[in-house]
Design goal:
By secondary structure, the protein is α/β, with parallel strands linked by helices. The chain contains seven helices and six strands. Helices cover about 40% and strands about 15% of the residues. It has a six-stranded parallel sheet, sandwiched between helices. The mean pLDDT is about 95.
């Protein structure tokens, strides 16, 4: 799929979405999502979030286009999203892999927070501290999987917006670990 049909826009809004900064940056995140929703009023989209961030966004985003899910009804809400012809937007946790949104099923997506593996796991915390390249590579693998949820065919097109400011640091430190096809999609400088 040609890179110009699958651009990645990296936000310059400086929104740090690490857990300890989420509350203070929530207003900026909401404004950025509302801007994207306004700019793409007639297209279906996907917003990748964590469950904790989803709960905060539920309280602050009020567009009738948005479909939120819980852990219990995730697949039901995904099917609802797939089956509607309206320009709905699925706000989803844990769907970086395993879903397929070709053509009009997904013309854009937002990656709110870079999907770093959870440091609450002792094994992941150990690897992050002792093998930072492994930790970065695992993050990049999931990020690349998420990027591939839209733009599924050679004639497809769709935009990806990365909001979390930690992407810039990840890309500067480990840009060589990103697949070349991912790097080719980045249109804004990082």
């Amino acid at each position: 799929i040609p890179a110009d049909r699958r651009p990645i826009y990296v936000s310059k809004a400086g929104i740090n979405l690490a857990a300890k900064y989420q509350d203070q940056n929530l207003g900026k995140l909401v404004a950025e999502i509302e801007r994207i929703l306004t700019n793409r009023p007639n297209e279906k989209g996907l917003i990748h979030v964590t469950y904790s961030l989803m709960e905060k966004l539920k309280l602050n985003l009020h567009s009738p286009r948005l479909i939120f899910h819980t852990r219990e009804d995730k697949m039901l809400k995904y099917q609802e999203f797939l089956n509607t012809s309206e320009p709905k937007v699925l706000v989803a946790a844990g769907l970086y892999e395993g879903i397929d949104l070709p053509e009009d099923l997904g013309r854009w997506q937002v990656i709110t927070k870079i999907p770093y593996p959870s440091l609450e796991s002792p094994a992941i915390a150990y690897l992050a501290e002792n093998n930072s390249e492994y930790y970065a590579n695992e993050t990049i693998r999931v990020l690349a999987q998420g990027y591939g949820r839209i733009c599924r065919t050679p004639t497809d097109l769709g935009a990806t917006y990365i909001i979390d400011s930690s992407f810039e640091r990840l890309y500067k430190e480990y840009g060589d670990l990103f697949p070349s096809w991912f790097r080719e999609g980045i249109v804004s400088d990082v």
